[in-house]
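User: tokens in, sequence out, please.
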């Protein structure tokens, strides 16, 4: 009997090493991984034709009894032809031909009944099936359930060396031999939705008898994850309601004073977000809020004001950033705007520790001393990296924690910072990742949302153009002129796709290699042929960190005119002098990604441009790129992208640990609603889920698996 946790090496003992290796490349290591590698679609091979009904060029499935099998070799051509003569149930004969598979003789022996499924061709002037998929329908006189023919046949994501046929071949016996899986979703819930239990669903998602079975199975798996997501969200919200936080008060006069420090007025959505945050801070329960806004929309200042409000009310605030550079940037922003503030703003990273006491009073001090000052409550705001969550750091009265680019921090690290206090601080996460609202509300449904959906006034919009391939030279000419007037340019290349098979998946290593190749080719062309007089450099993921840093540094310092790069251009780079973003193969990128590339320019006073190139002439491509030109902000665009390409594009499954199916299900508002209702129902019956021990256990696992924050 096979158990889910069994490693595939044990389960597939008869399977070749190479095949196992390929499976592992797909991250399939256990029986569970294999069984949860769901088909992406099904081919309907359920209808049997008779020989008299075959048409040249069509696809056909046919059942026949073998009359005779002969194999002959064609000398000098390394060709072995096996001809299998069969008759269908009406007695009409047909010759089925196979090339270089002489062992077929041993299987398709006289008298055996088999299904054949494939393309109808001609051979010696007669109709034939050429190298079809074949499968015996009886074993030792007993009818056997088929896997590849005469039914709905599952088609899987394929990779080199792993075909759908191969996967069916190994999945089927495992399913037949599988332990009975415990069902963690309560029977009443499944029944009320007419969904199959996990055992039935697993059989039917791979080998459905009819389409309706497949659809129910898919729905059942989608529902499972959505239910878990909703349960997590609701439970986390309920948990926070029980925790105690310091209520942080603000008064309008103080707030006005803080505003007066700023050289600009907050935008309407900054004000609205700040309002939402300050209202949360007044409550006795911890805030758990996500502040979303495009790059440059001014999130830092909103969070900064919230931090100052906390400090004014005699609390401390911590400001965490994922990298050293960002931490320093935040520190600089806060100390620049609030230089009259003398409550102490500290910077604590792996490298630096210093405190700012207003009016240019900045002191470097030993890390240990800074830590002491934080513990004694001397420091109001501490900005830092992971260094902030080291064991030895404690706060006296931590009221607010701000976390920038929150998805890069694990839940555990977040818990870490609150370990020392019985009072939970308020949490504010910030993110510039343009995730559509519909997704955010589920995936981050445990958080409340504030959205900054406009840029500060006075920014020059970036002129975005879809350039016709015939105007390529003109575009290069334009770039030359801009660079003559001292501007700089980015050129982004997509990887070269190697395969036309859309079901094929590639390993990230393969992808990276192609990307590098594309960049090298483009770099050669631009540096030698197009811009021989300009300084062109290259940036890609295979370079050492020091090399990358050197290239970026030269670019920042204006010592290089053009950087040709893969999609990995540093997130944090801020080069106000770069005003041109040229994107090759623009159709290969998701809209959200294109949007982020474009965000690298338009940061300075000069007019910026984004030039899009594509070879694709389809309406869909045009419509997508057109929406990049139209969209008002990243979120609107992400919403469009969701409809055009599906959610996997910005929430790759590797990033979230969320399987494809769930991502698709997130687009199904009906199912989302149902999942939420059922989650509420279950929690109403049993707030801690103790009545459903299996579900409760699964939910805990799920939390570990899915790192969404
Ligand atoms: P992000 O949301 O990407 O973190 P920042 O907070 O870094 O954006 O803000 C980007 C820039 O815009 C900063 O230089 C900041 O000072 C400036 N800024 C923020 N809010 C406004 C505003 N309302 N008007 C003008 N400039 C602003
Ligand atoms: Mg920011």
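Assistant: Sequence out:
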């Amino acid at each position: 009997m096979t158990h889910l946790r069994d490693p595939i090496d044990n389960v597939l003992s008869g399977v070749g090493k190479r095949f196992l290796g390929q499976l592992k490349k797909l991250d399939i290591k256990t029986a569970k991984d294999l069984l949860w590698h769901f088909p992406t679609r099904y081919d309907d091979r359920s209808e049997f034709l008779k020989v008299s009904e075959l048409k040249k060029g069509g696809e056909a499935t046919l059942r026949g009894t073998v009359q005779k099998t002969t194999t002959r070799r064609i000398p000098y051509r390394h060709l072995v032809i096996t001809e299998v003569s069969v008759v269908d149930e009406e007695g009409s004969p047909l010759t089925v031909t196979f090339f270089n598979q002489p062992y077929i003789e041993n299987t398709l022996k006289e008298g055996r009944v088999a299904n054949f499924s494939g393309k109808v061709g001609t051979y010696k002037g007669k109709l034939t099936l050429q190298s079809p998929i074949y499968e015996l329908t009886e074993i030792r006189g007993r009818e056997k359930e088929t896997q590849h023919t005469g039914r709905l046949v599952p088609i899987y994501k394929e990779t080199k060396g792993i075909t759908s046929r191969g996967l069916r071949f190994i999945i089927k016996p495992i399913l037949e031999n599988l332990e009975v899986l415990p069902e963690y979703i309560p029977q009443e819930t499944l029944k009320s939705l007419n969904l199959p239990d996990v055992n039935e669903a697993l059989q039917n998602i791979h080998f459905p008898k009819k389409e309706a079975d497949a659809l129910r199975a898919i729905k059942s798996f989608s529902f499972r994850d959505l239910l878990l997501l909703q349960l997590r969200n609701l439970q986390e919200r309920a948990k926070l309601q029980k925790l105690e936080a310091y209520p942080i008060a603000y008064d309008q006069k103080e707030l006005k004073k803080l505003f007066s420090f700023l050289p600009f007025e907050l935008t309407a959505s900054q004000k609205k977000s700040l309002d939402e945050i300050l209202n949360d801070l007044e409550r006795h329960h911890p805030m758990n809020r996500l502040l979303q806004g495009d790059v440059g929309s001014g999130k830092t200042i909103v969070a900064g004001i919230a931090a100052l409000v906390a400090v004014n009310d005699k609390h401390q605030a911590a400001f965490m950033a994922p990298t050293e550079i960002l931490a320093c940037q935040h520190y600089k922003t806060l100390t620049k705007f609030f230089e009259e503030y003398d409550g102490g703003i500290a910077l604590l990273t792996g490298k630096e520790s210093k405190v700012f006491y207003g009016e240019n009073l900045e002191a470097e001090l030993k890390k240990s001393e800074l830590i002491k000052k934080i513990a004694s409550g001397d420091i109001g705001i501490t900005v830092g990296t992971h260094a902030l969550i080291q064991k030895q750091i404690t706060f006296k009265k931590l009221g607010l924690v701000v976390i920038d680019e929150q998805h890069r921090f694990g839940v555990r690290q977040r818990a870490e910072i609150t370990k020392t206090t019985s009072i939970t601080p308020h949490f504010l996460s910030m993110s510039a990742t343009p995730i559509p609202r519909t997704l955010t509300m589920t995936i981050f449904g445990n958080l409340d949302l504030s959205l900054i959906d406009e840029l500060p006034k006075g920014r020059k919009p970036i002129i975005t153009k879809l350039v016709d391939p015939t105007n390529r030279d003109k575009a290069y000419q334009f770039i030359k002129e801009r660079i003559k007037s001292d501007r700089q340019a980015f050129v982004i290349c997509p990887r070269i796709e190697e395969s036309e098979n859309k079901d094929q998946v590639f390993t990230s290593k393969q992808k990276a290699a192609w990307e590098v190749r594309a960049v090298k080719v483009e770099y050669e062309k631009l540096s030698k042929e197009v811009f021989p007089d300009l300084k062109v450099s290259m940036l890609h993921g295979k370079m050492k960190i020091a090399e990358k840093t050197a290239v970026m540094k030269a670019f920042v310092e204006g010592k290089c005119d053009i950087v040709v790069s893969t999609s990995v251009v540093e997130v944090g780079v801020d080069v106000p002098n770069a005003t041109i973003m040229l994107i090759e193969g623009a159709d290969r990128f998701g809209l959200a990604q294109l949007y982020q590339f474009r965000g690298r320019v338009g940061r300075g006073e000069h007019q910026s441009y984004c030039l899009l190139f594509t070879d694709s002439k389809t309406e869909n491509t045009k419509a997508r790129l057109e929406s990049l030109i139209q969209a008002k902000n990243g979120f609107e665009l992400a919403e469009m992208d969701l409809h055009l390409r599906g959610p996997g594009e910005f929430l790759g499954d590797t990033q979230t640990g969320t399987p494809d199916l769930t991502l698709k299900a997130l687009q199904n508002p009906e199912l989302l609603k149902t999942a939420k209702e059922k989650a509420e129902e279950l929690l109403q019956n049993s707030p801690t889920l103790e009545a459903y021990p299996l579900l409760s256990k699964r939910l805990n696992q799920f939390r570990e698996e899915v790192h969404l924050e």
